[in-house]
Amino acid sequence: MADGVLLMRKGMGDAPLGGPPAAAAVAPHVTIRGLTKRFGKLSIYDRFDLDIPRGKLVSVFGPNGCGKSTLINIIAGLIPPDAGEILFDSKPLRAIKFGYVFQNYREALFPWLRSVDNIEYPLKLTKLPKAERRARVEKLVAHLGVKIDLNRYPYEMSGGQQQLISIMRALVVEPEILFLDEPFSALDYEMTLFMREQLQRIFIETGTTTVLVSHDLEEAVYLADHILLLSRGPAQIADYVRFDAHRPRTDATLSEKDFVTIKAHCLEVFQREVRKG
Amino acid sequence: MKRIPDPFLPVLGVIGLVALWYFAVWIQIVDPVLLPSPTDTFRAMYKGMAGGALGFDFWMTVERTILATLIAAAIAIPLGIFLGASERLYRSVEFVIDFFRSTPASAMFPLFLVLFGVGNETKISVAAFGAALVILFNVAYGVMNARKTRLLAAKVMGASRLQVLTGVMLLESLPQTFIGLRNGVSLALVIVVVAEMFIGSTDGLGHRVFEAQQLFNMADMYAAIFAAGALGYGLNLLFLVGERYFVHWSGK
Question: Does the pLDDT value for residue A3 go beyond 60?
Fold first, then answer.
């Protein structure tokens, strides 16, 4: 499984993530083995292997159409794979709690429910009593320090606030893993910057394993502990880069040497893959 | 000169029409027997509605129209959800629905007369038949066009098929359902009024218009026509207000 041996950058103090013996310190949270997916004649993944480390934020970045979103959609069970095995602590998806945040918050939230009821929705599905649901939401609100009126309907809120509601809806079940599919790409730049900080805060506060698909390299590196760079179809791991800058990261991080070097490296890999395609 | 505030703009058209009517009566462009003055017409309408025959006929038509719409909704909404939930199922019956939706319901009268006789049932059932197809088609499309992301969002959070249907699809289809109800009630009114003009009818706005015309009582005839217009407009408005209340998120 040559592809499964994750190519780590030398000289950055990395321990390989994928190689079983060296990564013994922390077992990976998610293991993907032999993932295969075709859309008609197009092969998106062909015997793809990947490990997602526990309690880390992994950004997925790559050329258009390489299957970034498809990857998390398969992991989160939205699209069935043709073959392969995906395990969460050696358990299948149905045995774990997870959260998923869609790019299109407008279509992902329920406009007939107030924001607070939107957030409670997944708890309602598990038949949790009303009082307990309220308590869980209040706990989450306090935990995240959210200061918006949750009695409003989503359509009465700004795009950023709506996406924040989506993220809270994903977090309220206390998921073991959180998936975000280009969560900020429908927001304007100002709101994107604000939401990045919100997401970083949430990640620091909860330490939930997070997989973020991004089409913005700066964002992908800035938020990530690991940047997964994919090649064009069938997608392979072009590189799996580690970024260790301490949190909370700030605007100053963006001009630090480490950030600049890693971003430049990722860009180089990305452009190499784009040219290949 | 001060501008007229926007909410009063629709009044201008009404004033214009009444003025034109007075003018036409004044220069006698039409035989006065055929075109009574607005004053005579509105007097006939007031007298008719306040305890007269027109008021009774008005309520008979309201009753039939509402009853027909209720029957249509009770059949078409569940059926529309059922058909819309499976696009392949809907496609297989789409032609039949579209065919009968395109058939003028008035062409079905003789058939329904044979089935239900000359009584109230025929009028209500033909109107319900026409309205049901309009509602059915809209509900099914509302369900089929439910935002895929929203259904997926519910599914990914662990909603069962039934929970997706009742908690998401149904509400997703609600705006389109209201459009269907609004079109359905308009069509039901059209059919009921036509049916009331048929042989054997003894009441209803259609009967009133027809009888006034037969007796050459033009003021009464116009009064009945305006009453029918007010009824149609009022029903439409009622459903619009209902829509705004129940589907507050529509168009947002």
Answer: no
